Recover the amino acids of this structure.
């Protein structure tokens, strides 16, 4: 099992990148694949042509709340992680032809809910064992990923945004790593669709992380997102898709 996480600020093209990675894995015949939307923006589902509500699926946050908080959260009997895991299989997991999907959701009751957080981590760690690839779309701050989803991943892809100074990107990426207690094997930087490609080398030298290239700016992709259409159905010669596919090929993923 390999876990790949996409991070970056809102609007950098994280979710689009995750959707295009999914497309590349699907086309390469990789399976089984699980997509996890951990971003409160929650737009990954739409980008891969899934309507969770229509499919009658709840987000993980809703399941945590209904199982442990509204439901009283008895700790006797079936262990919490196991209880939650079976509810996720039943009511949370969207099972598709090409990949499965989980939405983390936003309905968190803040405070110290160590039990649900640990139960969730336990449940997900067990559930994800069934997949060969787990792709996670995550917001910039990774602390929730660590607290609730997983403490160890294989690859982190940091999508860099445009900015006047390349130094800004560098600082942000370093901050992300320092903030996160998440164990990772590889940390890669990627130029978002608005990132000046010529700053890639500079960022690579300063950060000592491999720069995988830039995601091509692509009006067709932008149109798809605007119209709520699935990026999985983009033609295989779509420039943004090709740029993402090349990155994955360079890492021998596909
Ligand atoms: N390669 C691209 N070319 C053109 N527009 C893009 C590209 N990637 C993303 N966008 C646009 O940028 C906006 C944010 O993309 P999104 O993937 O939702 O970013 P994030 O998940 O980081 O918030 C969307 O309107 C999307 O259409
Ligand atoms: Mg997003």
């Amino acid at each position: 099992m390999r876990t790949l996480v996409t991070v970056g600020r809102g609007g950098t093209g994280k979710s689009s990148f995750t959707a295009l990675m999914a497309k590349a894995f699907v086309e390469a015949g990789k399976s089984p694949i699980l997509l996890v939307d951990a971003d409160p923006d929650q737009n990954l589902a739409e980008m891969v042509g899934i309507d969770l509500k229509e499919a009658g699926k709840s987000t993980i946050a809703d399941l945590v709340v209904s199982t442990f908080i509204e439901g009283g959260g008895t700790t006797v009997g079936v262990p919490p992680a196991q209880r939650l895991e079976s509810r996720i299989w039943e009511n949370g997991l969207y099972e598709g032809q090409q990949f499965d999907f989980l939405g983390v959701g936003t309905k968190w009751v803040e405070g110290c809910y160590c039990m649900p957080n640990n139960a969730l981590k336990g449940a997900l760690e067990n559930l994800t064992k069934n997949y060969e690839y787990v792709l996670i779309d995550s917001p910039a701050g990774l602390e929730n990923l660590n607290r609730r989803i997983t403490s160890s991943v294989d690859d982190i892809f940091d999508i860099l945004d445009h900015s006047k100074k390349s130094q800004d990107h560098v600082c942000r990426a370093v901050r992300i790593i320092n903030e996160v207690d998440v164990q990772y094997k590889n940390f890669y930087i990627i130029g978002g669709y608005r990132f000046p490609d010529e700053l890639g080398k500079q960022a690579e030298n300063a950060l000592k992380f491999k720069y995988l290239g830039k995601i091509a700016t692509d009006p067709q992709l932008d149109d798809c997102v605007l119209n709520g259409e699935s990026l999985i159905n983009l033609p295989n010669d779509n420039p943004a898709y090709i740029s993402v596919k090349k990155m994955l090929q360079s890492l021998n993923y596909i």
The first strand starts at residue 2 and ends at 7. The pocket of magnesium ion (ligand 2) is lined by residues 14-15, 39, 41, 43, 137 (CB under 6 Å). The two ends are 15 Å apart (CA to CA). The chain has one domain: 2-50+91-104+130-250.
